[in-house]
Design brief:
two-stranded antiparallel ribbon, 15 helices, 1% strand
Length: 420
Amino acid sequence: MAITEVGVYAHLSPTDIEALGAELDAIRVDFQERRGTRDANYIRRTIAFQRCLDVAARLTIALSRGKVGWLLGVLGLATAKSIENMELGHNIGHGQWDWMNDPEIHSTTWEWDMAGQSSQWRYSHNYRHHVYTNVLGLDDDIGFGVMRVTRDQPWQPARLMQPLQNLLLAITFEWGIALHDLYSERDRNATPAGKTQQTRLFAGKIARQLGKDYLLFPALSGRRWRRTLTANLTANTARNLWAYLVIFCGHFPDGAEKFTAEAVESETGSEWYLRQMLGTANFDAGRVLAFLSGNLCYQIEHHLFPDLPSNRYVEIAERVRALCDKYDLPYTTGPLLRQYLLTLRTVHKLAMPDRFLTATADDAPETASERKFHDRELTEVPGPIRGLRTALRATAAEHAGEWPFRRRDARPYATHGSRP
């Protein structure tokens, strides 16, 4: 089932893990010291570009006559909303630009253009999700409460509807996230008055969003209000689908592992780093795709350093990859389509009862644990390091009928000594 002993699963000794953590700390300090004019200019240019694109798209929708103009306007508006959602709202909400001390570009003041209340999202996402990433019972983002993405979540007959639920969640993603954040915020408020206050904040934000996109802008269009209304609805739906795709590909493809609550009971900072590396996944992207995803194609780097400026993730990724090579750890990434197809396979497969699943609960593509190595020992593997990446490759080779392992007495996989 889920991983309980992170170091054992990663084939790293405590000394290895602390060394890895020290190197990641050094990366953090390095990029904190690099923050400056270049980064401030980047976020200000991004805000200006997003706002200009939003205005231009709305004018194109309102003033153009044909279908081509409408489609161009919708595409521009959907792009502007996606940039605002991920590169601005998400990253500013993480405090990536708080160091600038700009009251407009600050995690406590920025309110994003989507249904959810930013303050409610910050607790659910920045704390519950990022501190306890993929920890069962602590991270509510594992399947967002409606999807079964690991066998640790018990199967129920309602799961048979999961493929349809997945499609509905994709189309209405901003509303699903908004409700998810509201429930999380209400759970941590002990008093009825506190819960009511959070519901009022939520209702107020929804009223503003619905009023802006589905009343105000259509009304400003006069007799062409239907054109504007359908354009806004289409752009919001496109933004929802894109945000859903980016988030799901960063958290639910093969290689994004899950953990038990016991795994974090006495977790050190270095172990937290390691869990983030094992619990997240990237997808391959060039500069344009990275920008449109809010640089969340670098989900591993984002989870390691959620408050460092997103425009630095491409540089950070080079150093994180090098550390994965050094410690023989997997760096989980792949083309966007491949990552989504793997995620989609998990969603459809886990809709079925466990008796229809073939892989074991400890050695399945979507659910693995240190127990998959319980009675195996690597033999004759070339190279100075025998870590998790090598062990995973050997396991895959064994499944293919090759000979990478020898069997041994049933006992936990031994951790290795410190790296030279």
